[in-house]
Design brief:
By secondary structure, this protein is an alpha+beta fold. The protein has 6 helices and 9 strands, in the order ββββαββααβααββα.
Length: about 210
C-alpha cells in the first residue's frame, strides 16, 4: 500500500526532426476513479514538476515517439519523502490536456496537428499568475433531471466570468461517470476554483430541473 498524495500528468509532443515540446505538468483530481478536475499549475513543488517533466521526456525519447505521449504519475510518500511513480502512458492527446486549450498559447491538439504536418512545434503558458482548472462535466449531472437535454448548459455557467470555455462532446446518452463535456475556468487560487465549480454544479442541477418542469 502506498500513501497517495495526488496524481500528475505530463504531455510530450515530439517530432523526429523538428524537435520536442514538453508541456507543463498538471494535477489531476479523481472522483470514484474518474478524472473530474485538472489543475494548472499543480499544487506541488517546482522541483517535483520539473522531475515529472524530465521523466516524461525521457520516456518519449526512449520510445522514439512521433506525435504525442501523455505520462501519468502517482505522487506518493515514503518515509515522509514525496516521490514519483509512473502509473500509465498514453500515446495520444489526453483528457487532462484539454486544459491547454486555454492555459497555453497552443493546445495539445495544435501541437499534434503541427507535428503530423511537419511544422515547427512550440507553446508557452498564457500567464504564470493565473490558476486554471478543467472540470469534466459527467453524466451524473444530466441523470439527475427527469427529461435530460444533452445540449443544455446552465445560463449561470455560460455567464460566469471565470468560465473560459464550455464544450459538449455531442454524446446522446448520459451514464454515471461518463464524460459529457468539459468546462475550463480561471481564478486566483485552487480554492476559489473549487468553490466556483461547486456553485456551478448546484446551479446546473437547479436550472436543469426548472427547464424540464
Amino acid at each position: 500500500m502506498l500513501t497517495l498524495q495526488t496524481e500528475l500528468s505530463v504531455i510530450v509532443a515530439r517530432h523526429p526532426e523538428n524537435g520536442t515540446v514538453t508541456l507543463p505538468a498538471v494535477e489531476n483530481i479523481h472522483a470514484n476513479g474518474i478524472l473530474e478536475t485538472t489543475l494548472y499549475p499543480p499544487r506541488v513543488s517546482k522541483e517535483l514538476t520539473a522531475e515529472a517533466e524530465q521523466i516524461a521526456l525521457s520516456i518519449a525519447q526512449a520510445l522514439d515517439i512521433y506525435g504525442m505521449l501523455c505520462v501519468e504519475f502517482f505522487l506518493v510518500k515514503h518515509n515522509e519523502q514525496p516521490f514519483l511513480l509512473v502509473n500509465e502512458i498514453a500515446p495520444r492527446p489526453h483528457n487532462s490536456g484539454h486544459i491547454t486549450r486555454c492555459s497555453l498559447t497552443r493546445s495539445q491538439f495544435d501541437l499534434l496537428a503541427q507535428t503530423l504536418m511537419d511544422m515547427p512545434i512550440s507553446t508557452e503558458p498564457i500567464s504564470e499568475h493565473i490558476q486554471w482548472a478543467m472540470w469534466n462535466t459527467l453524466g451524473d449531472l444530466w441523470r439527475l433531471t427527469s427529461r435530460p437535454d444533452y445540449t443544455f448548459w446552465p445560463k449561470s455557467l455560460l455567464s460566469d466570468s471565470h468560465v473560459c470555455e464550455a464544450m459538449l462532446y455531442g454524446k446522446t446518452e448520459a451514464r454515471t461517470g461518463r464524460k459529457m463535456g468539459h468546462v475550463i475556468l480561471k481564478h486566483d487560487s485552487p480554492e476559489c476554483l473549487f468553490q466556483t465549480i461547486d456553485a456551478l454544479k448546484n446551479t446546473f442541477n437547479l436550472e436543469s430541473r426548472n427547464q424540464n418542469q
